[in-house]
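Q: Hi! First time asking for a complex rather than a single chain. Here are the components, and I think there are four in total. Is that enough to go on?
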Amino acid sequence: VTLATLRHSDLDLMYDRSRLSPPVHEPAALLDHPSLARLSAFIKLTPAELLLLQSLGGAHRTLKRGEVLTDEGDDQPRCFVLIEGWTASAIAFPNGKRQIIKVHMPGDMLGTPSLALAQSPESITALTKTVVAPMPLSALGTLFRDAPRLAAILYLISVEERVMLMDRLAALGRSSAKERFASLVLQIHERLQRTSPDLGNVIDLPLSRIDLADLAGITTVHLNRVLHDLADANVLSWKGKTLEIFDFAALRDMSGLPPRHLTSDVGWLPPAHGPG
Amino acid sequence: VTLATLRHSDLDLMYDRSRLSPPVHEPAALLDHPSLARLSAFIKLTPAELLLLQSLGGAHRTLKRGEVLTDEGDDQPRCFVLIEGWTASAIAFPNGKRQIIKVHMPGDMLGTPSLALAQSPESITALTKTVVAPMPLSALGTLFRDAPRLAAILYLISVEERVMLMDRLAALGRSSAKERFASLVLQIHERLQRTSPDLGNVIDLPLSRIDLADLAGITTVHLNRVLHDLADANVLSWKGKTLEIFDFAALRDMSGLPPRHLTSDVGWLPPAHGPG
DNA sequence: CGCTGTGTTGACAGGTCTCAATATAAGTGG
DNA sequence: CCACTTATATTGAGACCTGTCAACACAGCG
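A: Yes, that's all I need. Here is the structure of the assembled complex.
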């Protein structure tokens, strides 16, 4: 697929036309779609880039809560764009323990770690009812060939993912359970705020206590102790699936890590193809 | 810089001609150079790609052991290719603790995490006498514009880095000190073996006990207990800076993580530019 | 309605950290 | 090259954090 051969019928492949308004032949409007939030976080995309992006996706796929999208060891690399819902990627141990590496929100790319390996290192599970758009490998090749600026943005996003992992790694390696949990909460809040700037201090999160514990690298038993402590100290309350944050400064102090701001210094990106 | 404008005088920018034989105008020979090991791990580079690569680097810079290349908070993104020696990137906490995120070996790219952020999230320190080649941002742009296949390989390398972080994250989150250490040793061995296939079971590593502890996410005090245990169990011995591994299977069992094999399925990569 | 998975709490054990002291190695300046 | 200083390495003892085990309440779901 090249820009020259793009047809309007291609546009429906990645995004459901019915969910969009104004209609899909006005690609700039797609900037609002959550699945483009990550891509447009660094720099505004051009209409031509949006057209290309949309031409690359496959038909949507829907998963129920708990359904597995990718299993550890799968030897066929498969990537998706998360359109709707939350998923979690995790590494399981032979002794039954597991570590959730990351929870994915709409706009995140799923399965990219499998691109580099012969077998997928992670399993991806739906935390909620979920809609994904497959991203065929050939589409990635097309993107690198025809849209160098988009490719560079994809690279930046991968780098951003690494930074998030670095922060988690530092937290798990060098802080207490309470501190781990604090940095986890802040990171999730930061990510949500990136797509919802007007996010308040009350958040609904589709995460069970087991998920939370597997994310923070502690047991559910101890997670409860941590939650109690933080509630007693009026830092936050987490009832059911509703998180309410009272004291961001206290959380930040506990975490020991600074907030991460995306760069705006993207002058080095190659020029966009097509009309800007 | 485009391929058409490449001059031989460009070739000396990235690699010291005197260290190479056969001479630099035979670019295929450069595949042997350690700094290209990572890039050529997925697919053999074409002469044109090698030429472009060499044209992108800046003048070498040498660091003494302990010297700092990048500090946390630096607001100017700066990337390098590690030519010689080892470095470590770490995140420090206000209370004085620090977590080493990764040790870098020749061929690794340094500083890429700073590309995505307004401030560098990590500090990079030389563990040995070190030689780096700066990689200006403009060069990255050129690479994405003129060498789509190289750009895609760069992306794959970033993904590979993420997988290594994922494994560390899982280890730090869900295993004991001994298990953390076992997976760390295996990962380092795996990385070394990727560039030295004939690597034996005796390795010299320029890592102090403090470095090791900061990598494994434990204290030096406890690291000593772990080392004793593993030596008593005839799994490995670590005298001074020399590691000798006796029982890989035992290490693998402890780690709980499988070995990671790079993919050979790179048919999706865009075509190489220039003569293949 | 029973069943299975999740959430919560208590008591206990064990792993890891902290503190402290000493031995050894590395680095520095004369 | 040596004496001095500093950083690193090692070991022990005690405290504390966190995991394990167990029991029970509760919710979701067939």
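A: Residues 148-174 of chain B form the longest helix (27 residues). Let me know if you'd like any chain examined more closely.
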